[in-house]
Amino acid sequence: MNIVIEHNPSSIKLSELGVMSWxxxxxxxxxxxxxxxxxxxxxxxxxxxxxxxxGSSEFVEFGAGDLVTIPKGLSCTWEVSLFIDKHYxxxxxx
Length: 94
Prior knowledge:
The protein is mainly beta. Helices cover 7% and strands 56% of the residues. Strands 1, 2, 3, 4, 5, 6 and 7 form a seven-stranded antiparallel sheet that branches. The longest helix is centred in the first third of the chain and has 7 residues, at 11-17. It comes from Eruca vesicaria subsp. sativa (Garden rocket). This is (S)-ureidoglycine aminohydrolase cupin domain-containing protein. Pfam families: Cupin_3.
């Protein structure tokens, strides 16, 4: 699946990446079908989610304080258990 999770990155790393200047996205608990057209890097300020790749019963779970990289082309379902508030950025198209 290649979702990369870094738990509790340092404030220095977050500052170097410029995370707090990235756009924000939020959602209520529920299930969401998503397709990632580009690689996304996000930092969860609040929340908890399980990500199930399309056609799989396996999942990856991450939450508040995690820096996450989601691969380009991933089709998945986000099962949000706690309200999500995140900063995100997409890699430019190649």
